[in-house]
């Protein structure tokens, strides 16, 4: 499964020869001949990509080498698609650039929009960003009175990390006679359970603080919940997305995964709706929200954006400055910042993705929301609103994300991610 660092590596990649290949493979729903169709589709896409490369490389000898190495990559992708037959449970992404000896393959959950293959100067990251979206790393904790199991869930993959077993005190031999001994033993059992709950609650808090996971989900039986919940630190409670009913000894991993994903999907949907209405509301009051491409680009360049909202099917043109990297929503031929020439970007929502990924900006693709549609299908919730945000400034003057230190010209390196 792909890590954050690996996504960042892809976001930084650039090949001037425009022969960076991005292949997303979404297995077809199982039905007759479906596997064969998958492979044929990949072959067709490869042929089309090759045709594009051919047009670009016409006559130029440097491009000729790029063409040859891209051709080898495409052959390998087609073979891979054939091998993926019968592997219906997994989707796959391949990022390749033979000219730089670059080849990365990742398994993904089968939730891509479809199989696609693109050739560009940058890798095509939207399908990946849609999957990752605001995906936090999730912890799933199963607990009962003397056991606990810890899992992490990322991109549909569940892995068990830790297990705890605190045996309850064995009842004394006198239990069977009732009276004092039996009551005493009962209290010991209750004390042991409480001690165990406290230990697990502390472990969860520590894990959150160490960033082992950002959000978590609990599976436990109703009878234990109130006692365990009472032991949770308020910080851990804030990060809890939900609970499902589970008996730790009998629940299967598959059940844990599907229950946790259901809770996660519900919480994502609520969070997205909340952010949309908060952003629109903030923008109305000229506070911590902006709407519309021009203002969103400006806020991105100013380093103000905390959460970016993009309509699921949003497309817009823009220009980028070949000199300073400034992105502008107005299709102007000269850069308003440095007066150098600009070039057109076909899909600005793709062009800003590397920047979004590099700066760990929370991203939501918003589906069918009439309110959001009215404000232009692109908006951002801001961390702060800077004084200068009415002026257009060059991206190179922008202070980078605090945790990354100052990295001038960051966007400049990614410009034209979606240029044709
Ligand atoms: Zn410029």
Distance between the termini: 30 Å
Strand order of the largest sheet: 7-6-5-8-9
Radius of gyration from the alpha-carbon trace, in angstroms: 26 Å
Low-confidence stretches: 171-176, 390-420
Give a short account of the largest sheet.
5 strands, mixed
* SSE order: HEHHEEEHEEEHEHHEHEHEEEEHHEHE
Q: In terms of structural class, how would the helical and strand content be classed?
A: alpha+beta
Query: Share of helix among residues?
Result: 25-40%
Beta-strand percent range: 15-25%
Mean pLDDT: 82
Give a list of the ligands.
Answer: zinc ion
The number of distinct helices, counting runs of at least 4 residues, comes to 12
Task: Count every beta strand, where a strand is a DSSP E run of 2 or more residues.
Answer: 16
Shape: globular
How would you portray this structure in words?
The longest helix has 32 residues, at 253-284. It contains twelve helices and 16 strands. The radius of gyration is 26 Å and the shape is globular. 39% of the residues lie in helices and 21% in strands. The model is unreliable at 171-176 and 390-420 (pLDDT under 50). Helix 2 runs antiparallel to helix 3 (61-83). Strand 12 (318-321) and strand 13 form a beta hairpin. It has helices spanning 4-12, 34-57, 61-83, 126-132, 179-209, 222-229, 234-238, 253-284, 293-301, 348-351, 353-358, 370-374, and strands at 20-25, 91-97, 102-108, 116-120, 138-143, 147-154, 157-165, 215-220, 240-244, 289-291, 305-311, 318-321, 327-328, 342-345, 362-366, 378-382. The chain is an alpha+beta fold and 420 residues long. It has a five-stranded mixed sheet with strand order 7-6-5-8-9, with helices on both faces. The chain has a four-stranded antiparallel sheet with strand order 3-2-1-4, with helices on one face. A four-stranded mixed sheet has the order 10-16-11-15, sandwiched between helices. The structure holds zinc ion (ZN). The site of zinc ion has 8 residues, from loops. The site of zinc ion (ZN) has 8 residues, from loops.
């Amino acid at each position: 499964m792909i890590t954050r660092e690996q996504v960042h590596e892809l976001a930084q990649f650039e090949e001037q020869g425009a022969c960076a290949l991005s292949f997303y493979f979404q297995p077809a729903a199982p039905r007759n001949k479906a596997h064969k169709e998958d492979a044929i589709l990949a072959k067709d896409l490869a042929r089309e990509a090759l045709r594009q490369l051919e047009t670009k490389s016409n006559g130029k000898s440097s491009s000729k080498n790029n063409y040859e190495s891209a051709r080898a990559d495409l052959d390998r992708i087609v073979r891979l698609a054939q091998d993926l037959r019968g592997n219906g449970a997994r989707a796959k992404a391949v990022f390749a650039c033979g000219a730089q000896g670059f080849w990365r393959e990742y398994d993904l959950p089968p939730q891509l929009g479809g199989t696609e293959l693109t050739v560009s100067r940058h890798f095509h990251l939207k399908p990946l960003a849609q999957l990752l979206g605001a995906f936090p790393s999730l912890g799933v904790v199963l607990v009962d009175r003397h056991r606990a199991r810890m899992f992490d869930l990322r991109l549909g993959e569940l892995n068990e990390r830790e297990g705890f077993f605190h045996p309850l005190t064995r009842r004394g031999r006198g239990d069977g006679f009732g009276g004092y001994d039996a009551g005493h033993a009962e209290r010991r059992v209750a004390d042991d359970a409480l001690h165990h709950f406290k230990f697990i609650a502390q472990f969860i808090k520590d894990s959150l603080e160490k960033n082992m996971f950002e959000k978590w989900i609990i599976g436990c039986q109703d009878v234990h919940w109130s006692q365990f919940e009472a032991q949770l630190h308020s910080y851990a409670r804030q990060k809890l997305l939900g609970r499902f009913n589970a008996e730790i000894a009998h629940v299967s991993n598959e059940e844990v995964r599907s229950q946790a994903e259901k809770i996660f999907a519900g919480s994502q949907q609520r969070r997205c709706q909340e952010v949309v209405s908060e952003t629109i509301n903030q923008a109305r009051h000229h506070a911590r929200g902006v709407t519309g491409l021009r203002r969103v680009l400006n806020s991105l360049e100013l380093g103000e954006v905390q959460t970016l909202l993009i309509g699921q099917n949003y497309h817009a043109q823009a220009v980028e400055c070949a000199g300073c990297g400034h992105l502008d929503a107005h299709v102007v031929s000269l850069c308003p910042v440095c007066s150098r020439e600009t070039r057109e970007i076909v899909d600005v929502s793709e062009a800003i993705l590397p920047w979004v990924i590099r700066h760990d900006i929370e991203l939501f693709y918003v589906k069918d929301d009439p309110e959001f549609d009215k404000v232009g299908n692109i908006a951002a919730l801001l961390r702060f609103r800077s004084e200068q945000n009415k002026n257009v400034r060059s991206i190179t003057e922008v202070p980078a994300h605090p945790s990354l230190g100052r990295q001038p010209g960051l966007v400049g390196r990614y410009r034209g991610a979606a240029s044709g």
